[in-house]
């Protein structure tokens, strides 16, 4: 009789397990359909986080420096950015290069935050093509081009392209993995195989990235400033788990959390610190004191912010400025600072 009861109990548990597995499979299959819905897609992408500014610990100082220079009429030389390449040689087998290939673009953004005047030298392909067309009298500046008859064409004027005074070049020269690490593994439980057991794992590791940049006088090619910086990056990993038998069933539950400081954001921080020192030298400022003095408390410049800097096309700075560009709710179709809804 007892044997029949045990067999019946096993069958019930087996049946419940099969039902649970079937329900889980059906739930997962409901997330992705092999037939496109009315909207024309198989699945709706998850996530609706807004676009935000991407500052580092040096962004505020760059904006402050640019604001200080403009307030005190400190003229910026014309700046250009050349190649800031990846010289680390670190490549993943499937994922490509470990370090960003956009360091030059980061430097341009840093210069914009500092209020520097910039001329384009990194990608001149469009200008060169239009210059070629202009030289052949194929480009017009009329509102509507007429391909059937000759019209006014753009002229090439002597001295029409602004030259640069200085340019920044260099590269990311170091990427060192695991320069130091530490960890702990703990397993706790009774000697009885059927008692509760627990395990805890923890890891901590440090790596670093470095760059070397040069500021070059464009006219003479004299290197007037050289900077080398490194930044350490920290990562951690924590896991915990419990294993137990309960009423004839096995329970194995584990959870964990890990994180690595963004490596490419560390590169941006390096470039912003180097740009800050370059521009502080060119502006001739004292140092960080200009941002700590209450007399110079003007971080809210209308056209300089954590997203960069710009030249306004119209007189609308009250509603469109550097501050509004940093607002994560602006233009988002489901967010609104005041009511939490509304399209824009």
Describe this structure in words.
The protein is α+β, with helices and mostly antiparallel strands and 344 residues long. 27% of the residues lie in helices and 29% in strands. The chain has 7 helices and 10 strands. It has helices spanning 2-31, 59-71, 103-113, 125-135, 263-283, 289-292, 322-325, and strands at residues 78-86, 91-92, 96-97, 117-118, 166-189, 197-217, 223-246, 249-260, 304-305, 308-309. A 6-stranded mixed sheet has the order 4-1-5-6-7-8. A two-stranded antiparallel ribbon has the order 2-3. Strand 6 and strand 7 form a beta hairpin. Helix 2 runs parallel beside helix 5 (263-283) and helix 3 (103-113) crosses helix 5 (263-283). The protein is extended, with a radius of gyration of 30 Å. The model is unreliable at 339-344 (pLDDT under 50).
Descriptive key words:
two-stranded antiparallel ribbon; alpha+beta; extended; 6-stranded mixed β-sheet; 344 residues
Q: Secondary structure elements and their pairing?
A:
Elements lengths: L1 H30 L27 H13 L6 E9 L4 E2 L3 E2 L5 H11 L3 E2 L6 H11 L30 E24 L7 E21 L5 E24 L2 E12 L2 H21 L5 H4 L11 E2 L2 E2 L12 H4 L19
Parallel strand pairs: 1-4, 1-5
Antiparallel strand pairs: 2-3, 5-6, 6-7, 7-8, 9-10
Helix pairs in contact: 2-5, 3-5
Protein name: Curli production assembly/transport component CsgG
Keywords: Signal
GO cellular component, one term: outer membrane-bounded periplasmic space
Q: Tell me the Rg in angstroms.
A: 30 Å
Please mark out the parts with pLDDT under 50 across 5 or more consecutive residues, or reply none: 339-344
Basic shape: extended
Give the SSE string. HHEEEHEHEEEEHHEEH
- Mean pLDDT score, rounded? 85
User: What level of helicity do the residues show?
Assistant: 25-40%
Q: Largest beta sheet: what is the strand line-up? A: 4-1-5-6-7-8
The helix-and-strand class reads alpha+beta
Query: Helix tally?
Result: 7
- How far apart the termini lie comes to 72 Å
What is the count of β-strands?
10
Largest sheet: 6 strands, mixed
How big a fraction of the residues is strand?
Answer: 25-35%
Organism: Asticcacaulis excentricus (strain ATCC 15261 / DSM 4724 / KCTC 12464 / NCIMB 9791 / VKM B-1370 / CB 48)
Keywords: Signal
GO cellular component, one term: outer membrane-bounded periplasmic space
InterPro entries: Curli_assmbl/transp-comp_CsgG (IPR005534), Holdfast_HfaB (IPR049861)
